[in-house]
Each structure stands twice: as C-alpha cells, then as structure tokens.
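OP here, attaching both records as promised.
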Amino acid sequence: MKNKLKSIFPLSHPQHIILGLALIGVGLILICNDYYFFWPPFATAFLNDDLIGGIFMIIGILVIKWALDNHNKIAVNRNLLIITAGLLALEATAEFCHGYVSDQPHMFTAGFLEVIILLFDFSIIGKSKKRSY
C-alpha cells in the first residue's frame, strides 16, 4: 500500500507541502477579511492590507513548488523556511497582542496555532540539509 501511494504521489518533502498549505490558508484568511486587525491603531492599514495575505500565499506556493520540483536547491529551501518563520512569528505576535487587547479567545487560539506551525517550520529547518556535500 505504501509503495502504491509513493508511485501515485512521489513526494520526497511532504512536510513542505503541509507547511505551504498552512501558509496559503493563513493568506486567504487575511485577504478575505479586511478588518481583521484593529490594534495598534497606527498599524491597522498595514496589517489589514491584502499585500500581507498575498505574501503568505506567495511564500506558501513557493514552498509547495520547491517540494514538487526536481531541482531542489538547498539555499532556496533555507531562505523560504526562514521567511516563513519570520511571517509566522509576526502573525502570532499580532494575534496574541490582539487577543490581549480585545480579550477575544479566538485570537489566542489563532496565535497558539500559528506558534505550532512555527514550531513545525523549525522542525523542518532542523531536519533540512544545510549544504550540499
């Protein structure tokens, strides 16, 4: 059964695909909701901009493309995973700040889930090749 699945879906980096799908999901949520962030008041225009959600989606698509590509470059993987970590850390921090200010539990939940995705990203970074030998 396992060999049959590998012949149908020859994925050598399934964790990257999961991470990419998570980034695309976060990006879609941020694009679809133009009033998600409300604090701090001076940063709401920046945080609610569709560009932020678009960046999440683009990085997610690039991570999936890297995982499906036959010419996987180590430097590209490293850069994508580091950018992903920065985006997820920014998003989790914003969620926790909003949850604290608004006292809304769904924002704490979203913050914790993004921290878990961030830890998953760190796990991928730890297992990935650092240089080609």
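Record two, same layout:
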Amino acid sequence: MAASCSQPLVTPVHYDPAFKVTVRLHESLLSGTDTPTDIEIEMMSLCGQLDLLCRKELTQQPSHRIDNGKTSNSFVNRARVVYDQMHQLLARCNSPLDVQAYLESKWLDRLFPRAAAYVVRPEALSIALKKTTLDNYYTQLAGLHHLATLARQMNNDLSTQPKPKYIAHQLALLYQSITNLEGSSSALAVQKKNIEDNFKTVKAAFAADQGETYLAPEIREWLLTLTNNLATVMTSLPAALTEDMQQPAAILARA
C-alpha cells in the first residue's frame, strides 16, 4: 500500500550555526597562553613534518618529481592534516597572517622550501627532489655526532680495558667517518694522515693473537692521543666542518 505524500513525515527545524561543534582531532587537549616563540617553534615542527612528507613522496616517485599535484593518496591525506594544523595554530594565536605570509615573515620558507612550495599550491604542488640547506645541515650534524661519539667510545674502551677487542675495526670506521665529513680535508687532515700511517701496525698487533691480554703501551698511547685530539676538534666546531650548518642554524636561532 503506497504511503500518502501529502504530509511530510518530519518537519525539519531551523538550524542555528551557533550550536555547531567544531571537530578538532589534531588539536592539543591542553590550552594556554602561547608566546610568539612558542608559536614559531611549533610552526617549525609542523614545517619539518611537512618537509619530511614531501621528501618521502619525492623519493617514491619514479622521476623524483611531483608535477601538478600528482601524488599518492597517502601523501595527500597526511600533508593535509599537517597543513590544517598550521592554520589552526595561527588561528589559536589570532595571527593576522595566513600560513604562507607567516612562513615568509619568519624566513621559514627558506629553511623548508619543500614545505613552503606545498603551502603555496597544495592542490597543484610541483617540486623536484634536490638537496636543501636543511638536508645538508642534518647530514653534517649526523656526521659530526657519529665521529665524536665513536672517538669518545674508543677513548673510553682504551682507558678501561686491557686489550679492547674491536679497536682495529673501530679505527677503520673512524677513518671512514672522517673521509665522509664535508670539510674534513682541512680540519682533520692531521688525524686522517696519522691513521693512514699507523693503521697497518695497529691491525697487525690485533691479528697476531699470541695470547697477550694487554695492548702494547706505545699503541695504546697513540690511540688515546688520536681519539683525544679528535674529540677536541669536534668540541671546537671549526668553520670548515660547520659551514653547511650556518644558514639553518642562524634561522633556528631566531626562534
């Protein structure tokens, strides 16, 4: 039996926008007074996340390019979340600037060019994979940290163990770490040449295992001096080793 269409089943009531509930899935549960520095640091963090998403997407593209927004659905969804968080952050502090203008005012567009490119044209992003100053910053920082940590570890092993087991292998890693560092040719030339001249002697001392439980005093002293000197150079942060870190560090220091 057909239902009568003369009368509506339900009469819709008037909708008042004042009762709208805004869904804020990605907003902090705790709110408080944010200083300009707090906002800038949080925006840096979001730019870093967006930059990483762009870089990952570029490495997965066969041509290492993104043209006219042709990206994976995963990238679109994740990048949009971060982009929305940027808008929410500026709305929270009542900033008169939009995201693009804010990044430019804080020089963050120079520090995160991939993220800035996305902000300008989210739906039609066009960028190519190439190293940025921040990429060089991370690479050099990681290299310096690895070399400093390895030198300290070797120095500690030599100071506490009669005959450290993996010193020859660690010495080879130390040499490779020096070689991989940009600017090491001038800043670490003495230490590099020192390893080249003495590596065979150290390797032979560990290869000729005759049941000795102690490392020869002259080899131990040379290794302790070498690792101490390397640690001292790392601590002084010479310009030759930190040149790639200057521009990003200057922008980060403004926060």
